[in-house]
Every structure is written in structure tokens, then in C-alpha cells.
Amino acid sequence: MQSKDLVHLAEQYGSPLYVYDAEKIKSQYNRLSKAFSKVNKLRINYAMKALSNVAILQLLREMGSGLDTVSIQEVMLGLHAGYEPDKIFYTPNGVSLEEIEEVNAMGVQINIDNLSILEQFGTKYPNVPVCIRINPHVMAGGNANISVGHIDSKFGISVHQLPHLVRIVENTKMNIVGIHMHTGSDILDIEVFLYAAEILFDAAKSFKNLEFLDFGSGFKVPYKKDDIETDIEELGKKLSKRFNAFCTEYGKELTLIFEPGKFLVSEAGFFLAKVNVVKQTTSTVFAGIDSGFNHLIRPMLYGSQHHIENISNPKGKERFYSVVGYICETDTFANNRRISEIKEGDILCFRNAGAYCFSMASNYNSRYKPAEVLWMNGEGHLIRAHETFEDLMKNQIPLPTAINAE
Predict the structure, then answer these.
(1) 20 to 30 A Cα–Cα from 311, which one of 17, 64, 276, 364?
(2) Residue 302 assigned to a binding site
(3) What top-level class would CATH report for the domain 269-353+370-386?
(4) What is the 3-state secondary structure (H, E, C) of 101-151?
């Protein structure tokens, strides 16, 4: 979609505003499917924590995607969006046995990542098909906060605990149908995937009734012009060949599963914000926008770089700006960034705002969450309204009058 379309949407729906391009989501889904076309049984489960709007879930469901969920609430959203239970994969971390039991009653695929819960669940439900999350002890990811497969990670059952794991399975007579891993996000080197895959293949040999292997995701997407990204096509060629060979060794055709989130929706997202003030100091020119880390926290939390454009003046002379928000503490989106000349009232566009942006938004400073729009077939469709004061107060309960009087 073009800058003029984004400006029009900002005028129509107000700012700040999230916009998602349906065609980009579709093209990313098809790209991944094509890269692994040599695998007879491929399943893509969208990691909905990246962007959980029901309309986005429905769009991906229509393309044939399953869902990767991490909470009972995400499972419920998936069911509400029309997914069949057997298309939903549930991979929690640190939740109670009671939540897992409640999700199990919904008929979705359970994925367990610790020995204690595995033994308890297997003892009570030995016939329920279960997947096991393995921690391969592979350090990978673009930031320590999103590297989840290393030895100090809280995620997964250590591959070094495999003998203990096998003993639990044998004692409980559990039905293990899948092995899963996820090493982290923003992984560039495909050799990391291939190395971790070999660890998963070795672990899989300990289980005789597997139906699938889940390799997680973590593919890096480009965040700026000429940025590098994971070579999905090369990974597809190499991993497909190795996966097919393993299936032959195993004696059974298994399903290969990926659970991409960022890869599918990141580049499809645009975050639009209006410039409230241009502030010149002795050393810096600040562009202060009508938003903050309450709406887009990734630059502050992960150090991520989102390309920022002035779509109100795209051909203007470039100057250096620090783009900041209206939150009452350090709230910087970009330092000394070259952007077309900015005036108060201009609309700035943050690219790569589809993944872990709105989904991590909050009401910090009692600010409202923004609206969301899906751009599809050349039109904008409102898929979430701007919050109001009534939304902010919805679940708050004032003190009773008598207590307040005291």
C-alpha cells in the first residue's frame, strides 16, 4: 500500500493507528509454504501472540493456517475465530496443571515444557496425545530477551534430561505424538536451525509413536532498507532434504510444523502517529508524537529499530530528528534519525509494526489503546475501535459511598 493510502486512513480513523496489509500477510504465508513444498506434510501454525486481533486470525485461518497459542485466553480467541480444536497448538510456560487440564478439555494439542507437569499430566491422562518441548541449549536470537533455547532459559525440558523424560513416559504410558523446540527470534544464520534440528532428530529417536516434529520459528525479517533477513528458500531446501531423510530413517512420514509469528505479520504492519510538537534544544531536534511506549514498546524493550517516514512530506529535505513519545519518562523511538522535514501535524509512519506492537500495548499513564485497520482489496476495514474513557473504566469499581465519606 502507498503513503497516500496511509495518510487517508489516519485522517479517516484518527491517530495513533495501526494498519495491516492483508496481501503482505498472504504473500509471507505462501512464501514459507513454497520454501518447504518438498515436504509432503507441512503445517504452519501462526504464533498469535505476535498479533491476536480476531480478524487477523480469521484471515490466516482462511489460508489454511493453524494456531500456536501460549495461554488459555489465546486458545479461546482461536476457537472464537473459527479454528477447529485440532488446528490449535497450546504451548504454555509456567502455568498451573489446572489451566492445562482446562485447555485439554477443549480438545486442542497440548505441548508440555517441564518434567513436573509432564509426570502429573501423564499420570492423570495417559491416553491424551501430548507434545514435549525440548530445550536444545542453542543460544540464538537477536536479543537476550528473545533467546529462549539456551541453557539458562526457563523454556523447555533440557535435552540433557532426556533419560529422565523417557522414564516418565515409560512409567505413565503417555502417548507422545510430537517433539517441539524454539530457540529464539530474529535468527539470521540458517546453520543454527540446521544444528538445532539435528538435536531434535536425535531426541525424536527415543519416541516410537511420533506424528510430527515442530521446529518453532524465529526467522529474521528486514527492518530497514537493505537489511539482512533469514534466507527462507535456502533453509527450506536444506531442512526439507534432511527432514525427509529422517522420516525414512524413522520409518514413518511425519508432519513438519513451523510456528511463525513475526515472519507472517511484521512487515504487514504500519503504525501511524501525529506530530504534536517539534522541539529544538541546544543539541537536538525532537519530534514529539501523540503516542509512546504504551503503544509501541519494542524500541525501548528490545532496542529494535523501526524505519520511520514522514508520509505527510515524503519528498522533503531530510533532517536529523529524535522521535519521542508523550509518556512521563524516557520514551524514545529513535535518536538522530534522518527523516524528511517534520512539521507539527504531520503523520509519521513506523514500519514493521505488525508483530509484538499492538499486542504489547498498555494503558500506561491511563492512555487509550489505538484503533486497528486491515487494508484488504484496496480498502481499509476497521477491526478494532479506538478505546474510550468508558473502556478505561469498564472493570474499575469505585469505593462505596459510605466508605468514601469516611
Answers:
(1) 364
(2) yes
(3) mainly beta
(4) HHHHCCCCEEEECCHHHHHHHHHHCCCCEEEEEEECCCCCCCCHHHECCCC
